[in-house]
Design the sequence.
């Protein structure tokens, strides 16, 4: 063996690996990656999700992202594997982030340093926050936590992880698209949840992402040109950079101009069925989400089986539904979707929550089938509903309101859809009615009170004489309260209201009606309480999340309909009067054709009080927004079965198509399978795009020539051009080159390596094996394309 051969085949002694100061991918690649991740940190910081924005220590997120990128870059250049880099980075983050958060908890006034004693104090503060969060959410079962500092820990972890992933994928795997997608999705999610204008941040991110993709592509092209020696790599790179910069500038300017002028929403209708599926997500976010910021609503128009009073009332401005009324109908009504029976101290539920301690019997929920067009003797759970009620008919066309809950004023009697009535207690007291049928258009018959001094009508005199002979079960359910529902301030408020009760002569001043009316008047007076749709700051400052929403309302003396209705209901229950919260919509705008258009902004809560022999009567204590119904003074008089009713003018057949034109047949044009088909198409396109990106992705792991050559030969054999026993490696490479001439260079690279290994017993360097993997990848794509083209030609024949 000659000396030259010995030298070529010998392995050199391993040398210590040095890390060059300048990354091979270029400074622009590093700058673009850092900018993307720091924009992510700035986006979360700008949203101000935590209430301590005045503390300068909270501005750490962009710097955490910077150090995350640096760690990912270090792991890639040192030669660590993906898992080693990420695991070590996670350990470092787990040590550093709690110390940063501990300093935020203690505040700048504490002057806690980074000496051993200061580090211990920071760690103890963070552990204390974690313990209190666990106590609030798990042990006490509260719907939210009184803490906020743990969100800094969560956001810091997100930004650190995104930075580390971006640094390693760009400089280790050389797959910048992965970094752009991950970081971009987090930024878009944050932008979707906050109302803060972050257009500048998304423009900056987009510019950095495009430059990163272009610069990485230029780097790969420069390597390819240098290996093949087909030109000056530097000149080619400059051309790409100049063209790419011009493209990025044009794309950004065009996007900003389009954003400022565009007003159409072509896909808006596709998602109209989606919000009702996000009700559970909204409740989860309300429980675990941070308390600050200016969150953007999820577009939900509807109500769930529970509600937590969070301090922000943010209804949508879309049209909720349209109601076509009978021509002679002139009564203004609230459109009730359901009622809540159980007060949790922080909100309301349909039924008793697991483990909840009530002062009265437990409330269970049952569902009863309601046959289509099958009138019931009286509505479910409405004792005495036939007294002082008349029929009210309407045809409902839902728009943004996409729940399966049936809307009806006061007391629903029938609906022309197969439905289930959800009720509480053995007496079946009304909670809601839901249907699984198509709800594009449906007809309802409801019972509404006759508020007139006529035989059987509801008057103040009759309500004052109703007495307190409540059914025992009804009293137990609708006077039940948790242990801490009332506090010192709400008790003081109740006593102040009772002092204002003035009953007529010869009437018991303690009668439930006059107390309820006094509560309604006192709470709705601007001199006593102020309507405000956002009281989160006041709740954090004065309530701390540890007292009930009723007590909190009595302290801050401001809020929205949820606060007003809750306070009145709880104080009535405390006084032994059965009451419940009703939720739905205020009356809408009614046109000359008696088509009532109800906005989602009219979503509302009010109070229903039970009176023997008269049923549930509506009260509305909500200040300037509520619309309390006037009740005539009248006389007592004997109650009758029911007043006369308006005649029906709507079809009874459930499948009768609505007439064209006018309000009664107006629909949104989106329903049935349309949204699901659109979503399926979008998902398929996304999956195909990811699959294409995975196929096109250039491998970074080295590949042995024998393995590459064997796999290539097997794939070519499926086309009938497999190697023959008499062919040499170079001869077979020539045959394949005739079939796929676009990859002759790759065939030559692979054939030469195969010969060197098989006949020269050479050990190839890692860089050479990586080039073989790249060549095999391009050859495989070329052969797959040849298979597709041949299949198309056969079909045409």
Sequence:
């Amino acid at each position: 063996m000659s000396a030259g051969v010995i030298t070529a085949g010998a392995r050199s002694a391993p040398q210590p690996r040095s890390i060059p100061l300048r990354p091979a991918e270029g400074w622009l690649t590093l700058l673009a990656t850092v900018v993307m991740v720091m924009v992510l940190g700035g986006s979360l910081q700008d949203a101000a999700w935590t209430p301590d924005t005045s503390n300068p220590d909270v501005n750490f997120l962009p710097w955490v992202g910077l150090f995350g990128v640096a760690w990912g870059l270090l792991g890639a250049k040192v030669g660590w594997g993906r898992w080693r880099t990420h695991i070590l980075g996670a350990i470092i983050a787990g040590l550093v982030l709690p110390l940063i958060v501990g300093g935020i908890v203690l505040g700048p006034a504490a002057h806690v340093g980074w000496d051993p004693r200061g580090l211990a104090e920071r760690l103890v503060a963070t552990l204390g926050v974690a313990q209190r969060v666990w106590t609030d959410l798990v042990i006490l079962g509260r719907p939210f936590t009184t803490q906020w500092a743990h969100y800094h820990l969560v956001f810091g972890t997100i930004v650190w992880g995104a930075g580390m992933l971006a640094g390693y994928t760009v400089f280790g795997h050389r797959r910048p698209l992965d970094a752009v997608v991950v970081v971009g999705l987090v930024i878009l999610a944050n932008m979707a949840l906050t109302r803060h204008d972050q257009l500048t941040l998304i423009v900056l991110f987009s510019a950095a992402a495009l430059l990163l993709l272009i610069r990485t592509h230029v780097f790969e092209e420069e390597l390819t040109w240098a290996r093949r020696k087909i030109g000056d790599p530097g000149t080619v790179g400059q051309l790409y950079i100049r063209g790419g910069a011009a493209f990025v500038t044009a794309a950004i300017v065009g996007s900003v101009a389009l954003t400022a002028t565009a007003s159409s929403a072509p896909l808006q209708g596709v998602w109209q069925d989606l919000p009702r599926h996000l009700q559970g997500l909204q409740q989860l976010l309300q429980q675990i989400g941070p308390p600050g910021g200016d969150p953007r609503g999820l577009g939900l128009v509807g109500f769930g089986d529970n509600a937590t009073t969070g301090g922000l009332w943010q209804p949508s401005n879309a049209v909720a539904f349209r109601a076509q009324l009978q021509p002679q109908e002139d009564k203004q009504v609230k459109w009730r979707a359901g009622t809540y029976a159980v007060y949790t101290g922080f909100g309301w539920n349909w039924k008793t929550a697991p483990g909840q301690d009530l002062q009265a019997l437990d409330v269970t929920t049952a569902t009863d089938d309601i046959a289509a067009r099958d009138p019931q003797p009286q509505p479910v759970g409405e004792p005495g509903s036939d007294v002082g009620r008349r029929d009210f008919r309407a045809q409902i066309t839902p728009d943004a309101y996409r729940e399966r809950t049936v809307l009806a004023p006061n007391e629903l009697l029938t609906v022309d859809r197969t439905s289930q009535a959800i009720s509480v207690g053995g007496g079946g007291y009304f909670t809601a009615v839901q249907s699984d049928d198509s709800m594009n258009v449906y007809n309802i018959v409801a019972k509404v009170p006759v508020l007139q001094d006529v035989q059987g009508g509801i008057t103040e005199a009759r309500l004052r004489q109703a007495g307190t002979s409540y059914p025992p079960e009804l009293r137990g359910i609708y006077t039940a309260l948790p242990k801490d529902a009332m506090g010192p301030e709400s008790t003081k408020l109740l006593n102040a209201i009772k002092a204002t009760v003035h009953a007529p002569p010869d009437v018991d001043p303690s009668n439930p009606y006059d107390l309820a009316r006094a509560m309604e008047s006192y709470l709705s007076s601007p001199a006593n309480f102020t309507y405000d749709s956002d009281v989160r700051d006041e709740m954090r400052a004065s309530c701390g999340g540890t007292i009930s929403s009723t007590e909190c309302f009595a302290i801050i003396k401001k809020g929205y309909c949820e606060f007003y209705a809750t306070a009145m209901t709880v104080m009535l229950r405390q006084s032994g009067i059965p009451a419940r919260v009703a939720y739905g919509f205020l009356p809408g705008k009614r046109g000359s054709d008696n088509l009532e258009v109800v906005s989602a902004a009219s979503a509302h809560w009010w109070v229903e009080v039970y009176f023997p022999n008269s049923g549930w009567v509506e009260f509305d204590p909500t200040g300037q927004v509520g619309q309390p119904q006037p009740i005539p003074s009248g006389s007592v008089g004997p109650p009758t079965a029911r007043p006369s009713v308006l005649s029906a003018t709507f079809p009874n057949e459930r499948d009768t198509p609505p007439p064209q034109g006018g309000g009664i047949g107006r629909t949104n044009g989106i329903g049935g399978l349309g949204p699901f088909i659109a979503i399926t198409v979008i998902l398929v396109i996304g999956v195909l795009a990811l699959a294409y990106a995975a196929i096109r992705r250039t491998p970074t792991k080295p590949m042995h020539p024998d393995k590459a050559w064997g796999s290539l030969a097997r794939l070519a054999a499926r086309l009938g051009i497999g190697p023959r026993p008499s062919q040499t490696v170079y001869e077979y490479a020539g045959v394949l080159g005739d079939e796929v001439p676009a990859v002759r260079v790759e065939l030559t690279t692979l054939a030469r390596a195969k010969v060197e290994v098989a006949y020269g017993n050479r050990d190839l360097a890692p860089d050479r094996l990586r080039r073989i993997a790249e060549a095999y990848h391009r050859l495989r794509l070329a052969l797959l394309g040849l298979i597709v083209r041949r299949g198309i030609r056969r079909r045409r024949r």
In short: Residues 464 and 507 are 8 Å apart (CA to CA). The first helix runs from residue 3 to 9.
